[in-house]
Write the structure tokens for this entry.
Amino acid sequence: MNKKAICIDYGLKRIGVALSDDRGTVAFPRKFIINENLNNSAAELKDIIIAENVSAVVVGMPIGLSGQQSSLSIETEKFISEFKKTIENLPIKDIPIIAYDERFSTAQARRSLIDKDVNRKKRKQAIDSIAASFVLQAYLDGINNIDI
């Protein structure tokens, strides 16, 4: 059974993307999507979901440190609502969309890239999808009950 998942790290300028393996155990970053137009971004994500035969969508939810919603979490909820409309008629039926706490994922991704001596320009190009891979890996570990 395919357990491939995609993670979307929604941002106002870029959308980070990560995919799991077919067994849903390991997350891998993909190239980010420029978020100039919600419809175009949603269509590009829909194409990835179809091409990769994804069975679950995880969206990083930027919850504030206090546990409260932030302005970006409100924007992310709007994105999720619109994205649901985009994928509701996919040939793959009943794909769940799971909002998952992404606190510290960008900081973790930044630290990982700095530790690897990735220069600032390349960090900017990679950080959103690296953050998405950290969120997806945390989600996968949780559903697979893996202790880390």
Q: What stands out?
A: The chain has a mean pLDDT of 83. The chain has four helices and five strands.
